[in-house]
Design goal:
Blueprint: E1 3-5, H1 37-47, E2 64-68, H2 79-94, E3 97-102, H3 108-118, E4 123-127, H4 132-141, E5 146-150, E6 167-172, H5 175-188, E7 193-198, H6 203-223, E8 228-230, H7 249-261, E9 266-270, H8 275-285, E10 291-296, H9 299-302, E11 312-318, H10 320-332, E12 341-343, E13 350-352, H11 364-379
Parallel strand pairs: 1-3, 2-3, 2-4, 4-5, 5-6, 6-12, 7-8, 7-9, 9-10, 10-11
Antiparallel strand pairs: 11-13
Helix pairs in contact: 1-3, 2-10, 5-6, 5-11, 7-8
Keywords: Cell membrane, Lipoprotein, Membrane, Signal
Membrane topology: Lipid-anchor
Region (Disordered): 1-27
Length: 391
């Protein structure tokens, strides 16, 4: 399978032809929105995935599962990468064909979605809330194609939720796991100050920050301490620290430097690839007592190539890859439903990652209490709900 960045055409591809499909059919399906056929053809030809091994056989080999990233791209060590790993697993284990296209900016979303429609994808998965309006319109205009959307409901241009038989939201109650990470951070900090910032002030980001702050507050309540949280005020969420996008790593670095200068030694960046700016700032600070709490994926594993692993206290993990795999499996076997998936601690849809190299620095009583709190959340005896929870 080739991952194609919007606007890129590999050498040897031909522009101007009708888009090729897995079946050889060149019929142009209903487009969303109308774009120049030449551009669609170029993107379509460039994105064609390789066929699965012939030994896979069965109906799955005639099924094409497709994915479009948001601006972070599939190498963001976080959100999009997790989704792509789920798609790759489906290709390997289920024998389905796959196509993935990357977006460089918001302007790429409608073109990328349309390119996948033209290639006769049976299932199109969008990564991130920014694709909500585009996928909703596409699902309405192409009822014969199934759609899934990670981290958002399907919505119209005014932000109103739209329910469609061929549209499945894949959402995650990350406040539950972020609460545990906040408690662990509060119990591990050496300075008595931790911090967080977000990419944009949207519910899927704010839910991490709120859950994290509530976990810190719980630690303070249990232990009579006063660990402070910079970058987020539960009483005034509008005053939180935000980059404004999911691409400005320099701003992520400068925010982290500001937090460090104000005494924070553990930082939670909720900003996808912008989190690499936090890693850069922590590395430059040269203090091995500074740590990071990653999001979406286990940062210890995904940031090794950029030197982030040694700073990972833990991560607030979404089971994005598993949700993608399960959705492809359901759709390819003819069992697709539009029932929303909500990942929780109870169904392993969200989790707190291992402490890895920081395990010896997290006090044993803190580790034990995190497990107690986890079970209380699962049992429903501990309420960690936030205004940003998926419903």
């Amino acid at each position: 399978m080739l991952v194609v960045r919007a606007g890129a055409t590999p050498a040897g591809s031909l522009q101007g032809r009708k888009p090729m499909t897995s079946s050889g059919d060149t019929t142009v399906k209903k487009k969303y929105p109308a774009v120049t056929l030449g551009l669609v053809a170029a993107l379509s030809l460039a994105a064609c995935g390789s066929a699965p091994d012939s030994s896979s056989g069965g109906a799955a080999s005639d099924f094409t599962a497709c994915m479009v990233s948001d601006e972070g791209g599939f190498d963001d060590q976080s959100f999009n990468q997790s989704g792509k790993e789920g798609l790759d697993r489906a290709k390997s284990e289920l024998g389905v064909k796959t196509i993935a296209v990357e977006s460089q900016s918001d302007a790429d979303y409608p073109t990328n979605v349309d390119s996948l429609i033209q290639q006769n994808c049976n299932l199109i998965i969008g990564v991130g809330f920014k694709l909500a309006e585009h996928l909703t319109t596409a699902a309405q205009e192409n009822p014969d194609i199934d759609f899934a959307l990670i981290d958002s409901s399907f919505t119209d241009a005014d932000g109103n939720v739209v329910e469609l038989d061929n549209a499945k939201p894949l959402t995650f109650n990350t406040a539950e796991a972020a609460y545990l990470a906040g408690y662990a951070a509060a119990g591990t900090t050496q300075t008595g100050t931790v911090a967080t910032y977000g990419g944009m002030a949207i519910p899927t980001v704010q839910i991490f920050m709120e859950g994290f702050a509530k976990g810190v507050a719980k630690y303070n309540e249990d232990n009579g301490t006063d660990v402070k949280v910079l970058g987020w005020n539960p009483d005034d969420p509008g005053s939180g620290s935000f980059v404004g996008n999911f691409s400005d790593t320099a701003k992520g670095q400068s925010l982290t430097e500001l937090f460090l200068s104000n005494g924070a030694d553990i930082i939670l960046p909720v900003a996808g690839p912008v989190g690499s700016g936090t890693i850069a700032a922590v590395k430059e600070a040269g203090d091995d007592n500074n740590a990071i709490v990653w999001v979406d994926a286990d940062g210890y594993l995904t940031t090794e190539s950029i030197g982030g692993s040694k700073y990972m206290l833990t991560s607030v993990v979404k089971g994005i890859g598993t949700a993608v795999y399960d959705t492809v499996q359901e759709a390819s076997s003819g069992n697709f439903t539009s029932d929303p998936f909500i990942g929780t601690l109870a169904n392993d849809g969200v989790s707190i990652a291992d402490y890895h190299d920081w395990s010896d620095r997290v006090p044993d009583d803190v580790k034990e209490q995190v497990e107690v709190l986890k079970q209380q959340i699962i049992d429903g005896t501990l309420d960690v709900s936030t205004p940003y929870d998926p419903s």
